[in-house]
Amino acid sequence: MTSSRLIAFLLFIPFIGIGQVAKDSELFKTIAALDKQYFDAYNTCDLKTQADLYAEDIKFYHDNGGLSTVKQDIINSIERNICNKVTRTLVTESLEVHAIKDFGAVAMGLHSFYNNQEPDATPKPTKFIMIWRQVNATKWEIAEVISLH
């Protein structure tokens, strides 16, 4: 299955838990920890950690920004548009993890973004999908992101 077909398929998977791994499984715990690591770095403008977690061949699909495939461009955009301006929170219990045989995992769920430049705005949950590639026994990287707002 090509990358674009996989992404199209994943967009249509309802968030009802079909096929997801158990929340007490090692894979779920690993991906949940990676999600936390990435978004802790995102919320604190730790660009090095974010860059370390992105694959060199990253594909980042953003409903408003389009497709980005250059890792440094994504990091520059985060620095310019996110750092010290936006905070992400995961919607409790919304995270799902689905194994991808011989590749890695898909994480999907709901998250909210608080824009500190709009203090009266109420953040609304939006869907996200992150495809994690397992590089070796201990290293994972973000291969693809679908960010919907």
UniProtKB/TrEMBL annotation:
Record-linked InterPro entries: DUF4440, NTF2-like_dom_sf
Species of the source: Dokdonia pacifica
Protein name per UniProt: DUF4440 domain-containing protein
Domain DUF4440: 31-141
Domain of life (superkingdom): Bacteria
Pfam families: DUF4440 (PF14534)
SUPFAM superfamilies: NTF2-like
